[in-house]
Amino acid sequence: MLSLKNKIGWTYFLIAMPFMIYVIAFYFVPLFGWIYSFYNYNPALSFSQLKFVGFDNFVKMYQERSEIFRVLKNTLAMSFLLILVTPLPMIAAVMINEVKHNKFKRFIQTVTTLPNFISWIVVFALTFAVFSNEGLYYTILRNLHIDVPVIGILGNNGAAWFFQAGLFIWKTIGWTMIIYMAAIAGIDSEQYEAARIDGADKFGLMRHITIPGLGPTFFVLLLLQISNLLNNGLDQFFVFYNPLVADKLDVLDYYIYKVGWAVSDYSYATVLGMVKSLLGIGLLFAVNYLSKKTKGESIL
Amino acid sequence: MISKQQRSFAERTFDILNYAFMAVFSFVCIYPFYYVFIYSISEPRLAQRGIYLWPGNFNIDAYIKIFSLNTIPHAFLISVEKTVIFTILCVYFSAMLSYLFTKRVMPFRSLMYRIVVASMYLNSGLIPWYITMKTYGLRNSFLLYVLPGIINAFYIILIKTYIEQLPSSLEESAQIDGAGFMTVFNRIIFPLSKPIVATVAVYASVGCWNMWIDNYLLVEKANLQTIQVILYSYLNEAQSLSQGLADMMRSGNAGRQLQLSPESIKMSITVISVLPILLVYPFLQKNFIKGIMLGAVKG
């Protein structure tokens, strides 16, 4: 005979069951799709009709290594650009913190976080409005009688990485800034007063109190950025992809999409996605280990 | 040693530069939205020659055209519908599961919690996800928009942390009065969790409104297209615009001839797809910041 307490506990358990079935169905079952890496997947056939090909799809990764290296180069180039600019939101937050008019401060925060709430498709629409050949930027140049290049920035191969990194910063900086603003709000105000009594000026306060106070936040965000080394996201590269910049925007996420849908090589795309996922988890744990070692804190 | 005067001069210079920089920064963030808006309500011929601050010859023909076509208003409604339904499901069920996870008497509590948290780090990849959704029969189905993602580990962590610090006295007195699990959850826990629920609702609804890859890859049915995908297809002239827009330009309206250009149409659809976000933006931003603060405290 169950005690009353146990009975209540099992009632909760029963209520939790549908939730757990849902979680397994939507997050764990898709993992079984990795099995298609060993088959020649064809959407028209049932599983028993599929041809088992062993490690052929993995061997293909080796055979197409020049392609893989090209894609990895783009992926890492984008990731390194983004790692390089991780101090930007912090600097911006420190500067906003020096704005003493509260209304202006709130205005800046409101306006700069807006791009974070729109989809990459809308970012593309806005970029197109400003930077396409008929767009605002080139219209201004034309009206000033300045020569306009035949191929605009959206098709500029040499600038593609930098342009995409710039767009990414534009979209995310406001939001990341808020994380830093929260951290600044958490700095003990007594520290500021003590330093002020010691005769520190604005710059002294920034250099010796605000910026060191943001160190831990910066570190965590930097590590998270590093753990995302292989994740550039599909959306951005999907919408900005065009023949002129194709070879530069082919990052891993986009390449997997392309192999799957343009080439219809589902099995090979599965292999690529699986390897990427596993490397991603490995990176995350490595970075977390690093954080535990150096700071004694887990970031997961 | 620098004199006080020099110091204040340096500080004042910094302030001026800082304010100037912040003004430019804000301008860069907001102006593209404003530009697209004024373009969409200007006479296309004038807009093409260049408008910068004010609309040229106020003209809303592009909007008239868009709303006279069925596709765009319909896609807008589909987007609104899926966002509302998904947000309600996500918030309600995530909160319920979070509440269950605060129950220490529940057997296998920590194991189940770990399974949910693990789901945050698992990523099967595009193809296995696609095949699974197809196997579940979600292809060409509205359910594809609202079923995946209802239980989200990140939200569960946020809500659970919040519920844990609620005073337990209210809940206990309700239980003594004989209220069951659902009653306690619906009448006490869920209403008390309003602050965190609002934050999660914002995350969920923005995410859902901006989601398009599910539509793009798995839904071909014309009457289930979302506004994001419609916008994309209009921007991507090569495909839909050549037919859709060309028809649009050719068909003279019964009354006067509408003044349209491909650009003005694109701009108007962009405005329509951003509008809901702008309308709820003040509410959105407040709760987003709150969520970040909570996350920061937790981290």
From TrEMBL, chain A:
Residues 72-287 form the ABC transmembrane type-1 domain. SUPFAM superfamilies: MetI-like. One of its GO terms (biological process) is transmembrane transport. It is found in: Cell membrane. InterPro entries: MetI-like (IPR000515), MetI-like_sf (IPR035906), UgpAE/MalFG_permease (IPR050809). It is a multi-pass membrane protein. Keywords: Cell membrane, Membrane, Transmembrane, Transmembrane helix, Transport. It comes from the Bacteria. The chain crosses the membrane at residues 12-36, 76-96, 117-140, 160-184, 205-226, 266-290. Gene3D superfamilies: MetI-like. It holds the Pfam family BPD_transp_1. One of its GO terms (cellular component) is plasma membrane. Belongs to the binding-protein-dependent transport system permease family. PANTHER family: BLL4140 PROTEIN. This is Sugar ABC transporter permease. It comes from Cohnella endophytica.
TrEMBL record, chain B:
The keyword Magnesium does not apply. InterPro entries: MetI-like, MetI-like_sf. GO terms for biological process: transmembrane transport. Its main location: membrane. It is found in: Cell membrane. Residues 76-284 form the ABC transmembrane type-1 domain. GO terms for cellular component: plasma membrane. It is a multi-pass membrane protein. Belongs to the binding-protein-dependent transport system permease family. This is Carbohydrate ABC transporter permease.
